Amino acid sequence: MTEQRRRWPASVYGHGTDPDPRFSLANERTFLAWARTGLALLAGAAALDALDLPLHHVVQSLLAALLALAGVLTAAAAWWGWARTERAMRENRALPGNPAMLVVVVSVVVVGVALAVASLARSVS
pTM value? Predict the structure, then answer.
């Protein structure tokens, strides 16, 4: 009998059995994709805050803050989603959904519509 290595986090690895490594690696790639999406949202927030756009400064700051918050929530959801999925695979349960997609979609739509309206308003005036 071999001694099992202690792996972190125990809330994930302390349950069930190891799934096929391909599935764990796919889950890790998904985590990294979500982390990159969070980073891209943060970069968009920084750009939106730094650029001189035809928006009221309060609106521009609020949109930048929305993107920054979405970036942070997306990165946190990446970790949470990875852990939930890995544990479900280890326990041979159905894979959970990912509510982070809604955060990304709503944030991008709100900022995109606001920028489109500002661009149209500038071209009309």
Answer: 0.85
